[in-house]
Amino acid sequence: MQESGTPQRVLRNPQSEEVKKGCSPLNIPPSPFMRNLGYGTGVNVYRLERSGQTCSPWAVKRASHRIEQLNHDKYATLNNRIVKEAEILRQLQHPNIIGFRTITKDCNGVDALAMECCNTSLGLILERRFEENEGPLPAIQTKKLIEDIAKALDYLHTEARLLHGDIKSYNVLVKGEFEICKLCDFGVSLPLDETGHVDFAKDSKLEYVGTLLWSAPETFKDGKIGSSCDIFSFGLVIYETIALVPPHTFEVEQNEIEDLNNEEKCSNAFGSNDDTIKQNCPNIDETNNELDESNVFESLENFLSDELVYGNRPPLPGAFDFSDDYNIIIELFYLCTNEIPTDRPNGKEIWQSLQREKETTQSE
What gap in Å lies between CA 69 and CA 75, rounded to an integer? Predict the structure, then answer.
């Protein structure tokens, strides 16, 4: 008699499953044949349309060929981050975290990470509102955003035991009219120990990267790096929904950053068509349709480094009159950006406070 036992888990093969559904096997074409969704420091993200009636588009992320030509060591580092991100995303299962699809090689043998495709990023939405003088993001959309990303952070910090390490508006993706918001870009994530901190002594290769404008004060003071760093950065994302500009930049005079205008236009390429990108960004490589990888945030940080002190709570713009709907939003901004890490709420406390507020409003 054959012994019974626990059935072995069948590993999911995204590519073979797509073939069964009538989709063609994943084939990453050269970049001119894909629409550019956006870019970061040395990476490009493209929209890949797939054949088959039931096949949704995917977002494909890969290191820039231009970086490979200019700096091979940096290219190798970026490519390794993409491989690392794929390994992390493969393990994460949460509705508010961008979905992993597969990792493969493109036609040039470069590692390409395929992910769920969303409409746009929060960063781009806020840029457009700023350009059109539309004022702060509507409270109902901001609350939805905060609740969704707080749930993602709660999952990351308590179940996955991961520090995202680079929370900012451009790493928050939005589907539809804020139907759901998702966290993306896990290339610099770090493991958390049982206390919720990164144990650098245990692994000397670990390094906190982040983005200066959104970084918590303890990252500048050799303090303990932990989940509360993500919460501080998230507080600055809440700030962005009100000020419509990156933290620490609201009071910078526009004429002082004219030299950055071209790079800021390039940052708007997320979702722009090719003609708009080429018009605004003269440094595009015409042969492969890739943007020059000078990062707009690095430029801002370099320009502002002598003018501002990072790692603090920026003042809210005084020109806006807020309705009562914004009370909890502003309160969460202040709580998340407390200087002392233990004074900041955790992800669960944030999303639960919004649910309580919603229940109270409905009962009135």
Answer: 9
Distance (Å, whole) CA 337 – CA 21: 47
3 state SS of 172: strand
In angstroms, the CA 334 to CA 316 distance is 10
Calculated CA dihedral for residues 111, 291, 184, 206, nearest 10 degrees: 70
User: Can you tell me the distance from the alpha carbon of 202 to that of 43, in angstroms, rounded to the nearest whole number?
Assistant: 30
Match 């998340």 to its residue by tokens.
336
Q: Tokens 């559904």 correspond to what residue?
A: 21
Domains of the chain and any CATH numbers: 34-116 (3.30.200.20), 120-257+309-362 (1.10.510.10)
Could you report the average pLDDT of every consecutive run of 10 residues in the chain (364 residues)? Answer: 43 42 47 51 66 67 65 72 87 91 74 80 94 94 98 97 95 93 92 94 89 92 91 98 90 48 41 40 40 50 57 84 91 97 97 92 74
CB 142 within 8 A of CB 234: no
Rounded Cα–Cα distance for residues 126 and 128 (Å): 5
Helices (H), the chain: 14-20, 65-70, 72-91, 122-131, 139-155, 227-243, 261-267, 274-280, 296-304, 327-336, 347-363
Q: Which of 111, 166, 185, 292 is catalytic?
A: 166
- Characterize 148-184 residue by residue with b for buried, 16 or more Cβ atoms within 10 angstroms of its Cβ, and e for exposed: bbbbbbbbbbeebebbbbbbbbbbbbbeeebeebbbb
The residues that bridge with 285 in the sheet, in sequence order, are 290
Does residue 166 carry a catalytic annotation? yes
Structure tokens at 135: 């004022």
CA distance 111 to 244: 34
Q: What are phi and psi of 298, to 5 degrees?
A: -65, -40
